[in-house]
Amino acid sequence: MPAHQPGRKRWRLPMNWLGLLPFLLFSLLFLILPTMHIVIGAFQTRDGSFTLQNIRDLNTGTIPSSYWISIKISFASAVLGCLIGFGMAAAVTFGAVPKWIRAPLLTFSGVASNFAGVPLAFAFLATLGPAGLVTLWLRSEFGIVLQRDLGFNLLSFWGLTITYLFFQIPLMILIIAPALEGLKREWREAASILGASGFQYWRMVAFPILFPSLLGTLALLFANAFGAVATAIALTGSALNIVPIQLYAQIRGDVLGNPHLGYAMAFGMIVVTAAANVLYIWLRARSERWLK
């Protein structure tokens, strides 16, 4: 009898991967392909030929200053978001506030961290804008004019920074709360047995362990603010010279616009946010190794 020759194995997609297909398709259509289109367009002329001029033009006009302002706003909102969010997360994690507040706070943080764009801009304009609720209340009840007496203008550096804090603080709470919960009680007890005070425990044990996670979260919050386009455009319009505003002016198709220069500006934003996210992932991995 002839020897049995097994047929070639057919390649089959595991059934547990089928659930990922919608996500992969969505990522391909709305993330990967648009990103590749931007990257390719940044190195093309209007007729489609290759050029580096668009990248060189990033150092001309007001583009460098717009990047610098965007970096400062992103850094300021990231630092403030980290400080305030860490304090709130530590309060609910270590019992400084009633336990029943924890669940509503985390639920609100999950919603607020994704609340951005036109709705967020409208909410702040209706609250702290020139005719906002708080602005009119301070003027009528206390005679305080925000811009004249306090120098505060919502359509300014600090105005946009405060607006970004609405989603920066909740994002910080969501990320740092699990890291705080990972601090083992045995470490605190061991430090106390050895005579360490609470301040010494945090300075010499807790903060060194949490530092990679804190620094990584700072990088993530920076990237989150730097890439926030819709909120900045809806809130400030052309009042603040930041990268998203100039990018929008370049690609919207007016006479002075240069879409490929806009692609180059978007490419620069991709590079900055990608670097921040890579730093976050690396530091997060180091922090998780310690907490395990």
Overview of this protein structure:
This protein is mainly α and 292 residues long. The chain has one domain: MetI-like (MetI-like fold), CATH 1.10.3720.10. It is built from 13 helices and no strands. The longest helix has 33 residues. The chain is globular, with a radius of gyration of 25 Å.
SSE layout and pairing:
Blueprint: H1 21-41, H2 53-56, H3 63-93, H4 102-112, H5 118-128, H6 133-142, H7 146-150, H8 157-181, H9 185-193, H10 198-226, H11 230-236, H12 243-251, H13 259-291
Helix pairs in contact: 1-13, 3-8, 3-10, 4-8, 5-11, 8-10, 9-10, 10-13, 12-13
- Main sheet attributes: strand count, strand direction, barrel closure: none
**Please, how many helices?**
13
Fraction in beta strands: under 5%
CATH superfamily: MetI-like
Query: Roughly how many Å apart are the termini?
Result: 60 Å
Overall residue-averaged pLDDT value: 86
Helical/strand content category: mainly alpha
What global shape is seen? globular
Whole-angstrom Rg: 25 Å
Order of helices and strands: HHHHHHHHHHHHH
Number of strands: 0
Oligomer: single chain
- The CATH architecture is Orthogonal Bundle
User: What fold name goes in the CATH topology slot?
Assistant: MetI-like fold
Give helix % range: over 70%
Low-confidence stretches: none
Describe the structure concisely:
The chain has 292 residues and is mainly alpha-helical.
Entry keywords:
globular, 292 residues, mainly alpha
